[in-house]
Specification:
mainly alpha; 3-stranded antiparallel beta sheet
């Protein structure tokens, strides 16, 4: 074996080991039996949720009982209770928490999408406009250089023509004077 094969094998073993650990933890969370029965007769939402099994029990409002709650499997519906239960606090029921989390996630997605669109489109438009201005300035400089070159050539030709006219006496001082 060379070192790249050994590194590849080590990565594969670590990845597989990590997957096994995650699966074992998930099965422990899913299969853990929790006793949420409250011994005293004055059971309430606060004693159920804030008790010793915090995060593992939920308060069913309909039946007034404390039931085992698994946050992985019992997201929308609690067995023997329905949808009206309190899982993490006694102020807002779990259905409203899910709706609120969904709305917050939607707002975050909209915000990220808006920022992405703004960064890609608006800032890109400014960069394209700057690039177009730079190209236009370059083209204008080229046109000015060509125009200056033509103007210099035109002046040089005019000078040569004037010299030939003077040589043969065709040039008059007054351009608007009549010929004799």
């Amino acid at each position: 074996y060379n070192t790249t094969n050994l590194l590849h094998l080590l990565r594969m073993v670590l990845r597989e080991g990590l997957c096994v650990v995650v699966v074992l933890l998930m099965t422990q969370v899913l299969t853990e039996d929790v006793d949420c029965s409250l011994g005293d007769s004055t059971s309430s939402c606060k004693t159920c949720i804030n008790g010793t099994r915090s995060g593992k029990c939920a308060w069913c409002k309909e039946t007034g009982t404390c039931l085992p709650y698994n946050p992985v499997t019992d997201i929308t519906n609690l067995p023997n209770c329905g949808k009206n239960f309190y899982a993490s606090n006694c102020v807002v029921n779990h259905k409203m928490v899910i709706v609120g989390v969904g709305i917050a996630a939607g707002l975050v997605i909209l915000f990220v999408t808006g920022c992405t669109i703004w960064c890609c489109c608006c800032r890109g438009r400014k960069a394209r406009a700057k690039k177009m201005r730079k190209q236009e300035d370059e083209y204008q400089a080229q046109r000015d250089a060509i125009s200056d070159k033509h103007e210099a050539g035109r002046a040089d030709r005019q000078e040569k023509h004037d010299a030939i006219r003077m040589k043969y006496g065709l040039k008059k001082n007054n351009a608007y004077q009549q010929f004799d």
